[in-house]
Write a structure and sequence with these properties.
single chain; about 300 residues; mainly alpha; Cytochrome Bc1 Complex, Chain D, domain 2; 2 domains; 13 helices; about 0% strand; disordered C terminus; binds heme C
Length: about 300
């Protein structure tokens, strides 16, 4: 266990330098057309989980409890657009940039902004929805009312009256009467979130929770409350949730929580394969690294 931690530390302590070094060679990325770049980034960084065909069936998917998204369905959880709509590109960018906390979907910090944009363009080619439909106008996020006992109390009342209890449980622990046996749109079992424990998948800011309450999480039983509740009521629920979210998921190696550890192991395996000359998913290829190093040496010699 100790040895594992040391190896992990060494590898990930060094990786940023390796990335920086490799990204010195930007001429290559620039010379490639957008979709080709996106396809390469996808193959190297995403396919192990999301599958070469984008169907969520990558070689690592089976082992993961929270399944990687099937992009062919064109259904996304984390959107700024109303329930049932396609997400905006900026929604997908947010997910790729921040990751989904507590799952193996890690923040893709090794990718430049251009690389993230191109991989988002590429993943949209997996579903015909993006060809045939346009995303609806995003739900507006009103400014947050002043925090206080009153607003939290309103949130607590609504939490019971609006039916959150049936899924998330009387105290928010994710153990309501309808919590058992729920499935998502892809047929996998899903549980209502334990709202007393941070971090949340939606994101770290109150605005992230407000967005989720307003748009719902498509593909899951979590409904949208855009029509059922006023903005003030949705904000009061955010305040109530933040008042009960007093626990933190246990931190494991490098501060990772939950299935993030699995995500890191998968990335590490791929990085290792890449460094040893294989076609890893993060690995920018051992061959390419050697070539870079030789070129650098030549430059320095001049
Ligand atoms: C180690 C596995 C893994 C890798 C590698 C990975 N993902 Fe994911 N991804 C997941 C999982 C698991 C989810 C589902 C999270 C959830 O539903 O809570 C997900 C979800 C997503 C979503 C959907 C979010 C939503 O709103 O529904 C997008 C978009 C996404 N990933 C993009 C990417 C891209 C792009 C890459 C590569 C740059 C990538 N992922 C690499 C595991 C992975
Ligand atoms: C029919 C069941 C159901 C009802 C009713 C429901 N939820 Fe959810 N909720 C879920 C499920 C399932 C998830 C988890 C989705 C996931 O993990 O991908 C969820 C997720 C959430 C999240 C996101 C947590 C995160 O990690 O970002 C919040 C916040 C939330 N629910 C609040 C509420 C509130 C407040 C209400 C009532 C107004 C409510 N839910 C009603 C099933 C439900």
């Amino acid at each position: 266990m100790m040895l594992w931690a040391v190896v992990a530390f060494l590898m990930f302590g060094l990786l940023p330098f390796v990335y920086e070094f490799l990204q010195g060679d930007e001429s290559m990325a620039r010379a490639q057309p957008k979709t080709e770049l996106g396809e390469r980034i996808y193959r190297e960084n995403c396919a192990a989980c999301h599958g070469e065909k984008g169907d969520g069936n990558g070689p690592e998917a089976q082992k993961l409890k929270t399944k990687p998204r099937d992009f062919t369905s064109g259904i996304f959880k984390f959107r700024s657009t109303p329930s049932g709509s396609l997400p905006l590109d900026s929604d997908l960018m947010r997910t790729v940039t921040r990751g989904v906390r507590g799952t193996s979907m890690l923040a893709q910090l090794q990718l430049s902004e251009e690389e993230r944009r191109s991989v988002v363009q590429y993943l949209e080619t997996f579903s015909p929805r993006f060809k045939n439909q346009k995303p609806a106008k995003p739900v507006s996020i009103s400014s947050r009312p002043h925090e206080g006992k009153e607003i939290i109390a309103l949130g607590e009342t609504l939490y019971k009256d609006a039916g959150c209890v049936s899924c998330h449980g009387p105290k928010g622990n994710g153990d309501g009467s309808s919590a058992e046996g729920l499935k998502d749109s892809w047929g996998f079992p899903i549980r209502p979130t334990d709202l007393t424990v941070k971090p949340f998948k939606s994101g770290p800011e109150p605005q992230d929770l407000y967005r989720t309450l307003s748009t719902g999480l498509d593909g899951t039983p979590m409904p949208s409350y855009f029509n059922a509740l006023t903005p003030r009521e949705r904000w009061s629920l955010v305040s109530y949730i933040l008042s009960i979210a007093t626990k933190e998921k246990p931190r494991e190696m490098m501060g990772l929580v939950g299935e993030e550890v699995d995500g890191m192991r998968i990335d590490m395996r791929a990085a290792m394969a890449g460094m040893m000359g294989g076609r890893g998913m993060i690995g920018r290829g051992g061959g390419m690294m050697n070539r870079n190093m030789q070129e650098r040496k030549k430059d320095m010699g001049r």
